[in-house]
Amino acid sequence: MQPVSDGITWRQLGEHFDSDAGWSVSIKQYPRRTRKPLRRRGQSEERKVWRLVVQRVERSATKTLFRKNLRYAEDDLFAQVVPPKLVARINQLIA
Fold this sequence. Notes:
Blueprint: H1 10-18, E1 23-31, H2 36-40, E2 48-58, E3 61-70, H3 84-94
């Protein structure tokens, strides 16, 4: 697999991993746990977190190599540019 270039968007990152059969990436939005003071009062809040999971298919098993919570408030994450620090981490996994 080719290394990921800087300045890539989240949508392009997904397409980059889809092109290789041995690797997979999933970027999904999940509800976050409510803050503790609100939990004590029995209240909840509508907070969401994006989760990035990079996996590699080895023989008959899928191995998770990297999992990261992304704290973006925007619902349109796929148009955003991937931070360079995260691109460097992903390239370390590929190498």
